[in-house]
Amino acid sequence: MNAQLRTDAGVDARLRTYDWASLADELDAHGCAMLHDLLSPSECVELARMYADEAHFRSRVVMARHGFGRGEYRYFSYPLPELVSALRSAAYPQLAPIANRWNATMGLAVRYPATHAEFIDRCHAAGQRRPTPLLLQYGTGDYNCLHQDLYGEHVFPLQMAILLSEPGRDFQGGEFVLTEQRPRMQSRAEVVPLRQGCAVLFAVHQRPLQGTRGSYRVNLRHGVSRVRSGQRHTLGIIFHDAE
Ligand SMILES: O=C(O)CCC(=O)C(=O)O
Ligand SMILES: [Fe+2]
């Protein structure tokens, strides 16, 4: 679909234009899938600009202070900006069936409700009340070590990150990287060639992998390689809230 036509619509309508059956196939095969042209360049610029305004956020993390890498991020506070909230609630119902199928395959009892509001009620009832959507900011030399965004007992197994800057123009390097650790085997890396406004869907911590003798669980981590120059911003959408 034409990028302009897509980004003219609301986020909900935009998300419905993607071919979710083939995205599910990609997630099953690779643990990640891309949504091209999810946000327009102006939406990306507007979101990236929010980073400077403390009023939007509940906390700021300087990655070097925690050994997380180099660069910084800020968690939004509730109420989330409308676009962030819309992305979170509109992407969730597309992902919940995939999450439920993955859990069934992995022999996990947890099932996810059809709407994000119901899932967030579950998180909040368990004391996971702090919002997790975040903006990340990287400058020259910054990077994000491989990690998993787990914030308590309740975990939604898929998440989304949207690149807000344009590679090659705004920054060099800074690739989104996923690694997949397979039991008793060597790890596999995947580099996701994001462009501005493009989202990546990926597994938060584990997913089923079909082997020749049935399926088994693999452990995933994600991060960002070193930004060689320039400035890079990302919007992270995590569906569970934090303790
Ligand atoms: O900056 C990135 O591309 C990675 C962001 C990230 O770690 C996240 O959204 O959870
Ligand atoms: Fe992350």
Automatic annotation (TrEMBL):
Domain Fe2OG dioxygenase positions: 129-242
Keywords: Iron, Metal-binding, Oxidoreductase
InterPro entries assigned to the protein according to its UniProt record, in alphabetical order: DUF2086 (IPR018655), Oxoglu/Fe-dep_dioxygenase_dom (IPR005123)
PROSITE patterns hit by this protein: FE2OG_OXY
GO molecular function: metal ion binding; oxidoreductase activity
Protein family: Belongs to the iron/ascorbate-dependent oxidoreductase family.
Protein name: Proline hydroxylase
The species this protein was found in: Rhodanobacter lindaniclasticus
Lineage, uppermost ranks: Bacteria, Pseudomonadati, Pseudomonadota, Gammaproteobacteria, Lysobacterales
